[in-house]
Amino acid sequence: MAKYTVGLGGSFDHLHAGHERLLQVAFDFGSKVVVGLASDALLKDKKFKENLQAFEERKQGLIEFARRIGREKDLAVIQLDDPMGPAITSPDLDVHVSSEETAPVAQKINEERRKRGLKPLVMVTIPMVQRADGDRYSSTDIRQKMAKKP
After folding, report:
1. Neighbours of 121 (CB within 10 A)
2. Which residues contact 132 (CB under 8 A, 6 or more apart)?
3. Distance separating alpha carbons of residues 12 and 105, to the nearest angstrom
4. Host H or E run for residue 61
5. What is the rounded distance in angstroms from the CA atom of residue 104 to the CA atom of residue 49?
6. Residue 54: CB partners within 8 Å, gap ≥ 6?
């Protein structure tokens, strides 16, 4: 196993196969994975926010995934109150894993790190995971479907 500390961030709302792929890649690269989990306040403007899971429920989903793959001890979950969090200030991170959708934020993280005199992170970008119907997995879609149920 590599001895890298890997960071990634997001809402991880209604944990789905796309999230799980992102997390698996992070664990494949790192001996430690630090997930910046968006605070409830940071998600206040999300679509279908009435169906958003609370922070603690989303955190438990991450822990349960790590437990299923035998890596719970290698996971740290921190609350993100801004989109970049400690990724722009921590000298301990080596790698950042993102999806195609969040890759622009990852690039901004490296720009900020350089401005602060920190080494840039190795960027790993994974493609969006497709459902059987060809659409990508999406927490927004899950929340929208929940909103339509009687």
Report:
1. 22
2. none
3. 16
4. helix 55-68
5. 23
6. 40
Structure tokens at 46: 């999300």
Beta-sheet pairing, 30-38 with 122-126: unpaired
CA atoms within 13 A on the CB side of 145: 7
- The first and second tokens of residue 100, run together, are 């195609």
Q: Is the pLDDT of residue 45 over 90?
A: no
Considering the chain, what percentage of its residues have pLDDT values greater than 70? Answer: 90
Band of the pLDDT at 28, cuts 50, 70, 90?
Answer: very high
Q: Which of 93, 81, 88 has its CA nearest to residue 34? A: 93
Q: How far is 127 from 18, CA to CA, in rounded Å?
A: 9
For residue 1, pLDDT over 60 is answered with no
- CATH class of domain segment(s) 4-148: alpha beta
Two structure tokens written together for 98: 């993102």
Q: What are phi and psi of 99, to 5 degrees?
A: -90, 170
Does residue 92 contact residue 5 with C-beta atoms inside 8 Å?
A: yes
Output the pTM of the full model. 0.89
